[in-house]
Amino acid sequence: MDIVIVPNASDVATYAADVVAARIAGTPDTVLGVATGSSPVGIYRELARRRAEGALDLAHLTCFALDEYVGLAPEHPRSYAAYLDREIVRPFGLDREQVRVPDASRADLDEAAEEYEQAIAAAGGIDLQILGIGTNGHIGFNEPISSLSSRTRVTALSAQTRADNARFFDRPDDVPTHCLTQGLGTILEAGRLLLVAQGERKAAAVAAAVEGPVAARCPASVLQFHPRATLVLDEAAASGLTLEIGRRPVPDRGDGEAPAGPGSSPHPAS
User: Fold this and answer.
1) What's this model's pTM, rounded to 2 decimal places?
2) Which residues fall in a compositionally biased region of kind Low complexity (predicted)?
């Protein structure tokens, strides 16, 4: 994995946005996998700012969400469909049809999961997948003990994840108990993975994903199997790493070969 450490959360957003923008500049019809939650918000707002200034054309994107809560209507303000409408559809100038979200309101959720897999395949697969990481190491809503080859499916949210997400809801009991999420096997099929993490709360999960064994206990550790996985971390999120890491604030060219800054070096693959 390629590990990039920058000073703060703002720098994480800028660096990651540079990676995404470079891909879109070279391939305007990029199929972009989009994560939700607080970690990637800075990326989306930076991309939207560049679009508003005329520096980036986002009109030809196709986006696929990682997951959606079961039991929340798409128009519910805490649904991920609503989140993506606020952070991507309108700011990027896209039609809603360009941003696909798993249909977790369906009566037959297994059928909805299969159709989502088929939709991703019909689009030619995801070119660049944006990811966050949970404090328990989940990516998407693939909680610990998820199969490393899992596909899009219904999963139960762990107590830790529900507690972490309670800040987005009026009451802890309002947090949904289940979701429809892309599986780890689905995520690994993306052409490139871009994971961002900010803050000391994520440090233990980041360390387990990067330096620990590949294990279902830390679902994000599966990124070690991907040939083009980049983690962009602020110093607090990287504070649990023990192996020698360089700081590389130079923007990625989008071809997977970011120029190294003075005295920097990529983290060796785990």
Assistant:
1) 0.89
2) 257-270
